[in-house]
Amino acid sequence: MTWPRLVMDINGIRSNTEKIVEKCQKNGVQISGVTKGVCAHPEVVSAMVEGGCSFLADSRLKNLLEIKVFGYELPLMLMRIPGLSEIPDVVKYVDYVFISMPETLEFLEKECSYQHKHQKVIIMMDLGDLREGMLQNNITSFANKLSSCEMVKGAGLAVNFACFGGVLPDVLKLQDLVHSAERFEAILGYPLEIISGGATSSFQLIEKGLIPDRVNNLRIGEGILLGSDISGQRWIPDLSYQTMYLETEVIEIMTKPSVPFGKIGADAFGNVPVFRERGKRKRAIVAIGKQDLNINGITPFGKGIEVLGASSDHMILDIEDCDKDLSVGSRLRFSVNYSAMLSLTTSAYVEIITK
Ligand SMILES: *Cc1c(COP(=O)(O)O)cnc(C)c1O
What we know:
Bound molecules: pyridoxal-5'-phosphate
Order of helices and strands: EHEHEHEHEHEHEHEHEHEEEEEEEEHE
Strand content: 25-35%
Structural class: alpha/beta
Oligomer: single chain
Number of helices: 10
Number of strands: 18
Radius of gyration: 23 Å
Helix content: 25-40%
Mean pLDDT: 96
Distance between the termini: 15 Å
C-alpha cells in the first residue's frame, strides 16, 4: 500500500458517461470519450465504452496506442494535429486524425500510398479561440488540396472553444462551423460524416436544445470524468461530482513560525516567496509535490486545512485551525479539478486506485 494515491469511482464515471450520452443522443449528437485527462486509464476507458461513447479520443498518440493494445472496438480519434514524425503510426493505428495544415495532408497522402491504406481526416477549424485550426478564408484552397488526394478522405470538421483564447461556444459559432462544412462538401463532392462542435464547454448548448442540426459530435472529457464544466464555471446538473480524490500521507507535523527566518533568496522554482506574519502555526507536510501535482487544482476535504505551497516533493499545509487529530502517518484527502487530475495521472509516483 503506497501513497499518494488517486482514488477513482469508476461507477460514477460510467454513469456520467451514460447521462451525457443519453442527452446528446436525443439531439442527434454522438460522443467521443476523451481519455487524456486520466492518461487513458483502462478502467476509465472501459467505463466510457460501457457508458455508450461512439468514439474514443485523445490528444496523445501514445495513449491511443495503449487503448489499441487493450483491444477496444471503438474507432479512435487523434485530436492533437500530428507532427510529421507521428504520421506513420497515425496511418497504422488511428481511425480519424485532426489536421489543419496542407503540409500535413501531403505527408499523410504519401504515407498512405506507402502503406496502401486510406486515412480519414477531420479538419480543425479555428473560429476565434486561436489555438490550432484552419481559418475560414483558407477553406477553398485546403478543400481543393484534399479533393485531389486519393488515399486521404475528408471525414469531417471540428472546432475548439475555451482552450486558449477563452472563447465560449454559442449557436452562431456552431452555425459558422456548419457553413464551413457545407463549403467543404461543395468542393469535395461528398458529404462529411462528422461535424464536431467542441468539448464539455459545448454541452450547455445540448442542455438548452440549441445545437444546430448538422452538428453530430462532441468530444467530452471533463464532464464525464469530473461532472464539471470549468469554462462555464459550473457543475453539470444530475452528474456525479466526487468521482475522484487525492489521498496523501503526512510525514511531518510541527508548530513553526509563519515567516521564514534568515537571509532570503529565491525558492526552488526561482521565485522570491512572500509570507504574511501570523505568529506560530501548526503545519503538516504531506509526501507529494509539484513534480506530481498542479497544487492550484486541489481543495482539502474538511475545514481548517490550507495549502501553503509546495516544492518538488513536499506539500506544506497550515493545519492550525483543523479540528482533526492529525499525526505522522495520517492521511489527508483533497478534491481535484481537471488540471490536478491531469498532473496526478501522469506522475509515475502516484498510485491509481479504482473502486
Ligand atoms: C482535451 C480536448 C477535448 C476535451 O475537452 P474537455 O473539456 O475535457 O471535454 C476536446 N477536444 C480537444 C481538441 C481536446 O484537446
